[in-house]
Amino acid sequence: MNQHHPGAAARPRRGRAALIAAALTAAAALTLTACGGGDDQQAGGSVAEVSGTTDSGKAATVLDRPFAKPDLVLTDTKGKPYDLKAMTKGKPTLIYFGYTHCPDVCPLTMSNIGIAKKKLPQADQDKLQVVFVTTDPERDTSAELAKWLPAAGDASFTGLTGDFAKIQAGARQLGIGIDPPKKEKDGKVVSMHGAQVIAFSPKTDQGYVLYGEDTTADQYAKDLPKLIQGENP
């Protein structure tokens, strides 16, 4: 399904590198990753247009139009309601949508963030909020998330589950497409989802920086001190 973005070519003053970064970012927001499947497919349903700028060699894309934090109330690993906007208000926050049965991208992303977080001073570690929202809520119960997150990333990470339609709508507000999990011919259940991490500023509570699935632990470690201050990496 082709997506048309009005005005995508209406930025003649932007440098070539920035234009390439914006195009890649927009394309990333319109694709879904099958964890372990090895193929990318276009997202079902429309998602927001994403454009931004990045310096060559940097992992971060600073978005031209930051995202508002989605109004999501889901269930955390303790089985209690978790209001995303209220609980992370005024705090530097990384949000990622994925699932615990993913054999590669999801655990690697959580691991890289967890490694980077441990390199921060304790005061900054305490400030940083990392929120993992499942795209496979039928299997990813609160108990499953509570068991998986400390092993995959860090015990301080917040895991959220709940109604799939609500999760899908929240992801779409951030330009991330996800599809309902489906069973493959070999019996495996695969969850197709965008694999971007979005950083929210503690100053504005807006999602202003995007990271792709290839971002390394060292790249996160380099950027986190600035993200915690609400600055551009």
Notes on the structure:
- The protein is α+β, with helices and mostly antiparallel strands.
- It has seven helices and 14 strands.
- It has helices at 16-29, 84-87, 105-118, 122-127, 142-152, 164-172, 217-229, and strands spanning 31-34, 40-42, 52-53, 61-68, 73-75, 81-83, 93-98, 129-134, 158-160, 182-183, 189-190, 192-193, 197-200, 206-211.
- The longest helix has 14 residues, at 16-29.
The portion of residues forming beta strands comes to 15-25%
Specify the helix fraction band: 25-40%
**Overall strand count:** 14
What's the pLDDT, averaged over the residues? 82
Helical run tally: 7
- Please state the overall shape, judged from the principal axes of the Cα atoms: globular
H/E element sequence: HEEEEEEHEHHEHEHEEEEEH
Structural class: alpha+beta
Q: For the CA atoms, what is the radius of gyration? A: 17 Å
Rounded to the nearest angstrom, the distance between the terminal CA atoms is: 33 Å
Q: What strand order characterises the main sheet?
A: 3-4-14-13-7-8-9
- How would you sum up the major sheet? 7 strands, mixed
